[in-house]
Amino acid sequence: MLKYSSVSSLLSGWERGGEMAKTGQLGCEAAVGSLTPAKKKEYKVSNRLHEGKRPLYAISFNFIDARYYDVFATVGGNRVTVYRCLEQGLIAVLQAYVDEDSFVGHGDSVNEIRTQPLKPSLVVSASKDESVRLWNVHTGICILIFAGAGGHRNEVLSVDFHPSDIYRIASCGMDNTVKIWSMKEFWTYVEKSFTWTDLPSKFPTKYVQFPVFIASVHSNYVDCTRWLGDFVLSKSVDNEIVLWEPKTKEQSPGEGAVDILQKYPVPECDIWFIKFSCDFHYNAAAIGNREGKIYVWELQSSPPVLIARLAHAQCKSPIRQTALSFDGSTILSCCEDGSIWRWDVVQS
Amino acid sequence: MPGLPLAVRETTNVGCSCSHSRTADQMCRQQSRVHLSTEEQLAAEESLSVYCKPVELYNILQRRAIRNPSFLQRCLQYKIEAKHKRRIQITVSLSGSMNVEVQKQEVLPLHVLLGRPVADVTEHFAVYQLSRACAITTFNQYGKKDQTEANFIIPEIKKLASDARVRNLNIILISNGEPKGASGENHLSLDHEELTSFPNIEGNCLWGKIPIDSLCSSLERCVTLSLGHKAEMLSTVNMHPCSLEPKFLNQNNCMTFSSHNVDPMNSYQVQVSICAQEIGARERSPYDSYSYNDVPTSSLPHIIRLRTGNVLFNYRYYNNTLQKTEVTEDFSCPFCLVRCASFKGLRCHLTSSHDLFNFEFWVTEEYQAVNVSVRTDIWRSEVVHDGVDPRLQTFFYCSKFKRHIRSKNLVQNASHVHPHVLESQSPEAAQEGSHEDYLQKENGTCSSYRPIAYPTDAALLNDNGSYKEEKLQKASFSETHLMSARHKSESFGSENHYAAECIEPDSSSPDTIGVCAATAQASISNDFAQLGSGSNLVPPTVLQFAKTRKLSVERTDPRNRALLQKRQFFHSHRAQPMASEQVSSDRDSEDEVDDAIADFEDRRMLDDFVDVTKDEKQIMHMWNSFVRKQRVLADGHIPWACQAFSQLHAQVLVRSPALLWCWKLFMIKLWNHSLLDAQAMNNCNIILERFQNGSSDPKQS
């Protein structure tokens, strides 16, 4: 005699079991944030500018040089433009760079670049050529190539340095995986790159073929990943950002379990190549969506708190990336239609 | 460019090559007459190097054609051989004025045959194997050509003198003796229309014979025969009565002549005139019959020029102001050594097969010459003009149609200038000659294609391929910095020196150069070193060939070099721009296995094993790394690998018994899988034992 209720409870139990298997038998369900804005902060559009008709895919504040925390840059096509945020919502153009259409350093387009905050000479790049490369920008040397037998099997979309472990990077891409790499064994080459005096192209570039950890958190393209301490934030086209903990085993690198900790829902965010950004202290994360709205999440509270939901009647085009300023007081977004929106926090 | 460099000529005249009235001296002038400064000499050498690329191409083509010659050239080869075969044509005729006492009716028709005795010839009985019957129906005096004489082809005199089989031949005359044909038992019937077919003779006849032997001894006395002169002689033949009987027992065309029951009184004598002439000798000039050995060197160039079939090739370079000259024999092509039978043939061959060059053809009474220069108008494929992005430029295709017209024009121009030349070398005549020769029926087995006797040519023919290579290298001496000092000195040597070098068999033979090339290669790549030194199977010419090709790539012409420098190249893995010296260097390490990283990865992967001891892991790692570095790929490599591994790691193994035990266990596993034989395993253990003893007592090792 099987009752409907028991069937449904079985079903839910099965579902939970599946969930648990995915999170590696750790027992706790992920905390999902509520979409009701907490109204902790209020933002208002203070400026809007059009760079051109071509879509802008990346925007980022400078967190490296403490003198210029108000400087940001945008990228669209083969053009990089550097701006400065001034008082009263003003934006000044500083410089613009247009590159010629050739691939130097990578075999194909570069999808993301991150700078190592502990050693700003080190830059890591993720490329369509399925590789992640570590560069020394002072000597122009390609030090390491993270690709090969254990590397990504499709475009690499995003990459990030670990905030404290200088050897560690995380990368994700169109092969649905997030991979964590260690360059500890290769650190001699990184050091060598600082003292290299010969031609950069003669440097003995090494291949790092095997990551220390491969996570299948998502079932679709993973287009953005960031470290939050030893945890990892990553997002796919599932309308959410996921915070999870990689649990590596010392004996067997490459394997390990994933503990999903929290989920930050982002409605209407089901197309790929939409990236989130965080402020310097990783207190908040901002992400745009397909409809031109921005969700600002408090990262480090549990369950996550939606700080604000930003929308403007004239901002309809998909937001590819946002940029949170050093203290989170300014949010910039770059759109598919080539426009840049500036939101400033309203002092209450 | 094989051939005999024409270097001894003294009376030369430096004239403008454009002058219309060329003299023989101008055609054969030498560059040694031109006095050049050192820079000019260098520039001249440089400009000579434009020949390298096309010559190299034709060398490659010729190399391919050695095993599989084209149909046309194969046919031509047979024709040339047939044409050069020496034979003697013998004409037998009856002169009426000589045979007045004989009744015309009694003698004619007279059948003339070649015969060889089959059985023992006794006084009354003889069996002959006969061939090639001719019938003489009238006496010679009437001036009628047909059926007044019988023609045979017999081998040349040397052959006659040496070959006993040929010496046995007889010319046999048969007359039916009873011209009326009234007798019923005389069945002689001859079909006059089909003279070439074997006559059906039977019954009572009269017959006589002329032994070739006797003919031969009289021919030997006639010296001028080999120069194409006719030798005529008269011979008296006794005609005996006999009864004739065809015999087809085991051989064809045998006839039995028996004189048992015939009346000997009917016999008479016939005067036969025999005329001998050597065929194939007509086209030759007297100089052909001497080998170069016999000729004093002072007159050698003269002879060279006069000999038919010898063609002078003048290679123009340095803006047509200089030329190198060489001579080929038998109308041979200097690039692919094909013998072309005639100057006309050579001309067709050159323009059709070697269209990277321009050719001018000259023929005078004394000699034939070809002026060669490199065509520059068809070398455009890699030229990029300034401001044009090479990446945007597509390859262009030079259509055959265009090229065809061009070469045609060339021929037309040439024929316009020298119409008389073409007449003297008309193709019809040449064709007829060879055709005739081919149709001649002859059973003679001799092949009289005269071997070339002088040493220079022999050297050329013996080792054509490598010799050409060597020469090519010499021609490419513009890149002096790539060459060793020894080569350099050779390159600036005079033409005379060069000629001498060609004849010298030992000092600079192609083989030694090949070895040099091999060692040069060996320093570049380890694999190649194994190949070159390890096995003798690799012919040095191959290595040399590779070397030559490499040189030519590096040499190239300035345009290509500029192109290399103009383009931006990128490293394949790092995708970083290459420096120009990296582009021109032949080292690209990016595809090589990075041993340090591979070792690291291997060790890391081995660390994953949980049921393997530390020692086992270490042996595994040592073996993996050894196998990767030594490229142990096939099962057959395993015995060698085990011994080399034992030798290499003996110290470590001996020091740690646990490791040694793992290694021996591994060898036993290999033996289990039949990858290692007992002999090799024993060798390994001997190696290890020796080290073990050595470590306990170092004086023994």
Automatic annotation (TrEMBL), chain A:
PROSITE patterns: WD_REPEATS_1 (PS00678), WD_REPEATS_2 (PS50082), WD_REPEATS_REGION (PS50294). The keyword NADP does not apply. WD repeats lie at residues 103-145, 149-184. Gene3D superfamilies: YVTN repeat-like/Quinoprotein amine dehydrogenase (2.130.10.10). It comes from the Eukaryota. PANTHER family: POLYCOMB PROTEIN. This is Polycomb group protein FIE2 isoform X3. It comes from Elaeis guineensis var. tenera (Oil palm).
